[in-house]
Give the backbone structure.
Amino acid sequence: MIRLNQNGPILEIQIDRPERRNALTDAMYREIDQALQAAHASPDCAAVILHGAGGHFTAGNDLAEFQTLPSTKDVGSIAFLHTLARIDIPVIAAVQGQAVGVGVTLLAHCDFVYADRSATFHLPFVPLGLCPEGASSVLLPRLAGARRAARWLLQAQPFDADDALAGQLLTAIADDALAAARACAQSLAAQPIQAVRASKRLLRAPDRPQVHQVLDAEANVFFERIQSAEAQAAFRRFFSRKKPA
């Protein structure tokens, strides 16, 4: 479930599926996408905050949906990522607990990211027989450097908030990530809204064509990988571990 809370000029989008560590379904991606587009269309919205319920940010894609073998790339996750990369309204993420897969890659598109000490980050694409998504194959090396990005993406090593901060994935580590995100949003709301949006547009404009191109290129490979024998075997192992004894 996606919960929206409009607090004056600030929109909060909460991923609220704590029983699955906020794993995202296609329908949930579409809800977030629509909320982002509506915020961007509103001249009175100054900032968007993304956060999760129940002590976690998001465990990423709900892998159960991958068992249906998507045959089209016109799916909610790809539309959401393109929207996130396209909008001019500032986006702030507040991270606690687990951030997995797209829960990490989406952070590279956010303008500000705050995490607390409970936050852990993991990009398990390769162990699942998949490949990077969210334009992370270009954005993470740009942010974190080639060596750290290779460790995160190719070796799929989990990392903590200190490593994420050193790799410029975070703005800051905070005792209360959501409180820090709200303070950031309030500081943005105190500025002329359209001036902030114009400035973000100028900051992002040089990279946006490449980001959208890479999003589609990664999606082509990602959906090929979903149907591969390697990925399907990895999914079977994953779900066999999830079955109760």
Summary: The chain has one domain: 2-176. The chain has ten helices and nine strands.
